[in-house]
C-alpha cells in the first residue's frame, strides 16, 4: 500500500485516510453486489476520500455507498440510475439492474464524459465503462491488484 500512497502523492491526488481502519462492508453493499473480493477490502477501508486535485475523478469510499450519499451529486449508483432513466422496456431495466448487481463501482471520472471502473464480483476482473451505454464495457485487469499495478506503471491513466 505504501507504493500506492506514494503514487497518489506524486500524482497530486487528495486523500483522507480513515482514522479507524476496520474492513467493514455494510449490509446494503453485500445485499446488492454479493461478495466483494478480499483483495479489495483493505483498499476500500483505507480512505475516507480519494480524488484528483480537480475533483473530477475519485475512488468510491464507504460513505459513497451509505444512504445519505443519494443526496450528493454522485452516489455509488449514479450511473445505474442514469441508465435506468433511459431504459424503455422491462427487459432493458432488468438487464441494467442485473449488470449493476454484478459490478461493484470503485472509481468514477468526469474527464471524458462519465466513465467508471468496477470490480466484477463473480470473477474479480476489473472493467472499464463509459457513457452513453455504461453497461458496454471492457476488461482492463485480471484483478484489483493488477489494476493498481497498471495505474502505478502508467498503463492505466486516471
UniProtKB/TrEMBL annotation:
InterPro entries: Knr4/Smi1-like_dom, Knr4/Smi1-like_sf. Residues 26-150 form the Knr4/Smi1-like domain. Pfam families: SMI1_KNR4. This is SMI1 / KNR4 family (SUKH-1). It comes from Isobaculum melis.
